[in-house]
Every structure is written in C-alpha cells, then in structure tokens.
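User: Predict the structure for this protein chain, please.
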Amino acid sequence: MSIQSDTSDLTKNNSLKVRFSQATEWCLALLSAIGSMAVLIWLLFYSSYGFEFTDEGFYLNWVAAPKLYDSSLTQFGYIYYPLNLLVGGDVAWLRRANVLLTFFLSWFLVDTIIKGLFPSDIKSKVNRYVVSFGFASGGVSFFSFWLLSPSYNSLNFQALLIIAAGLCLIELEKERSFGWVLIAVGGWLAFMAKPSSAALVGVCVFFCLLITRKINIRMMLLSAMLLVFLLILSSLIIDGSISGFILRLQTAMTFAEFLGGGHTLVQLLRFDDFLLSSEEVTNFRVVLIACLVVPFFLYVNNFLTRTLGLLLSGVLLLVIILLITGKCHLSLKPSSFQGLLILVVPTAMLLLSCFFFSRRFISKFSLSHIFMALSFAVFPHIYAFGSNNNYWAVGSLVGFFWLVAGLVLFVPSLRGEKSSFILFPLVLFTQVVVVILVHSGMTLPYRQPQPLVLNVQPVELGRSGSRLWLSEGYANYLTDAITTARKAGFHSGTPIIDLSGQSPGLLYALGANSIGRAWMIGGYPGSFKLATEVLKRVPCEQLISAWLLVEPGGPRSISDSLIGTFGADLKDYEVVASWNTPKGAGGFEERPIQQLLKPNYSIDLSADKCAQTRAH
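Assistant: Here is the predicted structure, written as structure tokens:
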C-alpha cells in the first residue's frame, strides 16, 4: 500500500505540475496579447494628437499633391497618394493607416522567421501568432519621434521590412518564389523612398545570398525583370517617359548640391560614433538584468520560481498599462541615441541561448542564419545611409532589425514546452522598451511645445477638414491663420510661395498649393539659390497668381528679392492678413509675425513680363 500511495502521490504531483505549467503558459500568452493590443490601440488613439509644421508639413504636401513637383529624389508622395485618397485626406486616419501598415509588415517578418526556424517539436506548444504579434510591437518604435504621417522614412522602413521577409523566405527554403517577388517589390519601394538605401540594400542582399549559396539565376533574373518593370511603370505614371523620370532624378541631385545640406557623396561615406550618457548605460544594464532574471525564474521547473516569474511578468504588463494610461511618467532626458535601448532584447536572447541552450545553440548555428542575422544587423545603417544626421541616431529608429537579427540566431536553439517561458517574457520586455521610447516621443514630440496628453484644443485643417488635437498656442496660430486668410479671399487650391522657409505645415492647413517644392526650405547656405532654380521651373501663369507667405526677420526666412526672378516686386502685392507664430514652431522658441500677401491684380504683373525677366 505504501508503494502504491507513493506512486499515487507522485502522479498527482506530476499532474499538478503539468496543470500549473499549462496555466502559467496560458497566463503569459494572455499578458503578451494584452500588451500587444494595448500598444497598438494607444498609438491609434493618439494619432489625432499633435502636428509638426516643418517635416510633417512637407510629407503631407507631397502626399496630397505629388504631381505639383517635377524634381525629386524620393517619390513617396506617389506611393502614398492612393492611401491618402482612400482615407479622404484625413490626417489622423492617414497616420493610423501608416501605423497599421508598419505593424502588419513587422508581424509578417517575425512570423516568417518563427514559422521557418522553430523546430517542429515546439510548433504545437507555442502560440506562434501571439509571439509574432508581440514581437511585431518592436516595429512601432519607429514612431518614437512622433512623426506618424507617411514619409520617405516610413516607406524606406516598410520597404526594408518587405525585403527582409523575402530574404527569410529564400534562406529558409519556404515559398522561395514568393521571396524573390518580395525582394523585387521591396527593392522598388526602397528606390522610390530613398535611392541611396536601395543601392546599399541591393548589395547587402546579393552578397548574403551569394555567400549562403542561395543564388538562383532563373529566379534572380525574374526578380530583376519584375523590379525593372515596376520602375518603368513608375516612370511612365510619374513623368510619362523613362527619360523624363531620369531628368527628374538628375535635377533633384543638382538641387541637393545647391542647398549645401551635407548630402554629397564624400559627406555620406562616413563612420559615425555614438555616446551614451551614464543614465542610459544604467538603464540598459537594469533592463538587461531583468530580461535575464524573469525568463530564468519561469524556465526553472519550480512552483515558487515560476510563480515569481509570472508575477514579475504581470508587473511588466502593469508598467505598460500605467505608461499608456498616463498614470506613470518617466523623467528620461531626451537623447539622440535613446533608440539603442532596443538592443537590450537581442542581447538578452543571445545570453539566454548561451546559458540555457549552449550545446543546441552552437549545433544549430548555420552559415545561412549567421549571414541573414548579420544582414539584418546592418539594415539600420542601410536605412540611415544618405542622412546628414548621425547614422546611429537615425538607424536606431529601425532598431527593430536588431531585434529580428537576434531572433534569427535565438529561435533555432529553443526546444520543448519550456520555450514559451523564455519567449513570452521577452515579448513583454520588447513592449516595455517600445512603450518607453514612444512615451518619450509623446512627452517631447518633435518640434512641438508640450506633451501630447496636454493637447486639448481641436482644430480642423486642410482641404478635408482633418480634426487634430493641438496645444493652445498651435491651435490659436492655425485658427487665426485660417480665419484671416479666408476673410481675405483665400481659397483652397490657391498657390502660395512660402518665403518663411519653414511653414509647409501651415500651407497644408490652409489647403494651399505649395509652389515649387513641398517645402521651400530656408536656413541653409544654398536656400536662396535652390529656391531661385526651383521657381524657374514653375510656369509663369502659376507664379503671377501665387500669394506670398513672408516672415520678416525669421530664422529661416528666404529673401523677398526672390520674387524679382519672375519680374515681380513687393509693390505688386498687398498685405491682407497677419498672425503671431507660436513658441516652439519649427524648433524655435521665439519667431516673428507672419504675413500673407495677395497679388495686386490692378498692377501689370503679367505672364509676358515674367517670361521677359527670365529671358534676361
């Protein structure tokens, strides 16, 4: 009886352990799913908050009317134009669509990796969709500067996500034909977003496939043909001919040289460094230790440690919820390199692999996995290539690729039911890092005066009447500008020459056509020369009917002598409206009054006079 009793007790204990293990796994999956949904809903809700007058205004002008501009290195306006039509030009919904598209592509990439690299013995144990959905949250760290509107940057990131998914499909020998199609489509989108990044990623992918012996001449030729077809089709749609499209690119490159913004080839080929503050180093270490401790507690098959690990996982979700709901605030100092914090998760993955699965980790190493991970590790620098800012700072916006590189090396070493006790905590830590980064961006949004949560004044702007919640200063600025401009007879679609040098967002809010460029940028050594050359390409009929936006004494103002290049003078215009510019607009604490000038049609400002001036 004693032996039977002991056997019965052992069976009960084992049964209890199994049930507790299953319950713990279910709870972890639930926590991860809640965290993922909370992050996504949070971003979608606040998509109607804030507005940035320089970069975001440039993006919106481009997307709203790409046909206005005949010279550009990036063609993102044409790619996102159908999306803008689909949402009716509503800025908030355009932002939401951009967030959802980025999240979906991030999920597709992670899911492709997990589906292709998970050993068959754990596919039934781990809820793949919850894990991939959770890690996909890392992709939205891209919006940590709070520039949610579609841009050449978002298109570049989305293109690299598509290329990465295609590379995974080829390397993992899963749906390889579709992988080649994705690489062609992603390469085309990368070129349309940023040709410098497209050239570099093409070289990277080619050498990765070459070294891992995955080059297939037939499929590579088909992929190249698809890429060429898409480029030719784009050329015909945008400029009506291939030669016209090439001329567009050549002109844009010449204009970039005029500006003197640090985009020459010599200036782009450089090695940047990064410097973390002592506070950032401490934060990195604390989060890394936590990333190691929580999975360790859950992995050890002990009631006490697993209960503690589950409680700590619940604390992680609580932190996420508190930050999202505004019940908890972080006092992090703004830093150009704060995005490097996402490196904590892949670092933890590698350390956990060495600690728990050292033999399997080494045995599962393959040339394909190593070079695929290396390729993804350099994708952030490929994304940043061409920028005149620090490559580490810019590249960290897409630090999601570092996370993906870690997954490529980490996932093959997992095995058995315990793998979920490693993965789910890492998902939660990924979400914590993302919330920290995005929360920092919402607290100090790019070139905006206050945290988004304090924006309480609604304003309707643009031709579609998009409703956004702004700070009091920004709301009053736009309301005054729109009201006084309408009283002066300004109508949507009227052309404006922006001589303030930094108000493309105001032009978008007024529903104006920004003549010459989507952003007539000031403040650079060659800003006046660039503006002069750009206006030479604008038909005289548009120039003589265009209104002027001036900001006398402004920090980025372009000289009003510019209008003399098409035969006009200030006496040909009359000031019909003026308003105060708010603090923080364009990144400047104080700015002077802006004025709106209307052409005085009683004066002889004709197309013939414009043509004669140009001829001389």
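The CA atoms of residues 136 and 350 lie 19 Å apart.
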